[in-house]
Specification:
Blueprint (H helix, E strand, L loop, with lengths): L1 H37 L5 E2 L1 H13 L8 E6 L12 H15 L8 E3 L6 E3 L17 E6 L10 H17 L7 E3 L11 H5 L1 H17 L11 H57 L5
Parallel strand pairs: 2-5, 2-6, 3-5
Antiparallel strand pairs: 1-4, 3-4
Helix pairs in contact: 2-4, 4-6
């Protein structure tokens, strides 16, 4: 019996090894791929559209607790992608990160000089893969170009400044949360020239962040609590009581004036009667 049980067990294990485990591994890989693909955003936005999107994220606290925003460069010129739409380039970059490098995500944005030129790769709602050792609670944007010996300029610079300022704003972060890739070691990214002029670039992002904050529409005041409503009503009742007291005082004053007027009328009538009697006495027989 023991031998028979052992034989059955070995056959079950053999079947699991050849059939069940591969299926389970395939399902796990598919689930991982579905999850990773769900992180792909793929939208292309203008500066105005991206700022509006960041306002939505901020209002819903969607980026908390993100703590850093990291600047990267692609190290390849934008001219490498001139025959593609930005949407196509986003998909190609995503496939490169997912298929070639085997990452479960990627940077959060690819920024180009075209308009619209802010492309969203890894959704800002999720952590991505862009900075070894600093992927958790961080967001990263790749500026298209190689800034080893040149600086970003023109519309490319404008789009980059808006992306990084908007992302800081969305996560309710200060300018001190802005970092560059090389700060975390092991890379030349985002290029020697940009690193050497970091204070300049950070200043541009800081000014744009201040501008976005200053242009906020004041939020609607919150609805009053029940206690605040009761206090407000009590204040209104107190004001009404004071008004009633004032009216009562005025009515009393008017009643006093009427009484005085009546007394004056009585006195006047009495004097008229006295005058008529005096006149009759002075003119007997009507003469």
């Amino acid at each position: 019996m023991t031998t028979a049980n052992g034989l059955i067990q070995s056959r079950v294990e053999a079947w699991q090894k050849t059939h069940f485990r591969p299926l389970r591994n395939l399902a796990a890989a598919a689930a991982t791929d579905i999850y990773s693909e769900a992180k792909f955003d793929g939208r292309v936005m203008s500066q105005e559209q991206f700022i509006a999107y960041c306002r939505e994220l901020r209002a819903g606290d969607k980026l908390l607790p993100v703590q850093t925003v990291v600047v990267h460069h692609t190290a390849t010129a934008e001219s490498s992608y001139v025959n593609q739409t930005l949407t196509q380039t986003l998909r190609n970059f995503w496939n490169y990160y997912r298929r070639t490098k085997g990452w479960s995500g990627g940077p959060h944005s690819l920024i180009m000089s075209r308009e619209p030129g802010i492309g969203l790769l890894n959704s800002l709602l999720y952590d991505g893969i862009h900075c070894a050792g600093n992927n958790t609670n961080s967001r990263g944007g790749e500026v298209c170009g190689n800034f080893t010996s040149v600086l970003p300029s023109g519309h490319l610079l404008d789009n980059a400044v808006v992306f990084f300022a908007g992302t800081l704003y969305a996560g309710k972060m200060t300018i001190d949360a802005l970092k560059y890739h090389r700060m975390y070691g092991g890379t030349a990214c985002p290029g020697n020239k940009l690193v050497a002029n970091w204070a300049w670039f950070k200043g541009l992002v800081s000014a744009k962040l201040d501008e976005i904050i200053a242009s906020e529409t004041p939020p609607d005041p919150p609805d009053p609590t029940l206690e605040e409503r009761v206090t407000e009503l009590e204040g209104q009742v107190s004001a009404l009581d004071e008004s009633v007291t004032m009216l009562e005082d005025r009515v009393a004053a008017l009643e006093g004036a009427v009484a005085n007027l009546a007394a004056w009328q009585t006195t006047a009538d009495s004097r008229i009667v006295s005058l008529e009697s005096w006149r009759e006495e002075r003119e007997p027989d009507g003469k």
